[in-house]
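Our platform keeps sequence and structure together, in a single record for each protein. Such a record has a labelled line for the sequence and another for the backbone structure tokens. The tokens are whole numbers drawn from a learned vocabulary of local backbone shapes. The remainder of this section carries one protein's record, kept here as part of the documentation:
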Amino acid sequence: MNLWKVLAMSMLSVLWPEGSWGEDSSRLLTHLRAGDQQVVVTYGTSLTEKGAWVTQMRQVLRDQFPGQVTVINSGGSGMNSHWGVENLEQRVLQKHPDTVFLEFSINDSVARFDLPVEQAQANLEQMIDRILEENPDCELILMTMTPGNAYPEGHRSYRLNIEAHYEMYRKVAEEKGFMLIDIYPQWQAIQEQNPEQFQTWIPDSIHPTATGCSEVVTPMVLKALGLDGKD
């Protein structure tokens, strides 16, 4: 197995807050093993809408549980959590999901959006509340993503306080007992230890290539769900 996959999987011991659903599998996997039909919605930025990890996860789920899983990619390129709140009904609630992945921090931290962490948290919690009002048993999975720090101040893609936005996701996940797939520290480690590899996998420091997803993001997602991608 690739070294980075080993490191990614080793970090997952901290992703389950106390009081969450088990330590070795997700609620999604529990239902699939019971033979239930499940709808999974991924909701976030371009890292979700165009992220190869969604397609890769979908394929593993289909291979291991044929005919049981519908994975709907409801991400929006260039969008932040304001958009997430405004489009939640059409893109998430109307799909009647059993599991929802949420990731908006990478764009909530874009300086030109002028979105304070406090407002981003309010938006996140509003989405969470609405989803759980619709389905109290829905599994919510929060994600941190890439560093996104290649652009200088003044550039349209300049990220401000991205670490604070990611820390907010960690805080909300811990407080609410949700699963957190904390990918940001893993990308940081690769960036520091092997910058050439990092540049290959995330040329713009924001959007991982399909290979970057298959080497780092997807293994962490599958491991968090309780899958290994091999069965």
Remarks:
- The longest helix spans residues 117-134.
- The chain has one domain: 3-222.
- Confidence is low (pLDDT under 50) at residues 8-14, 16-23.
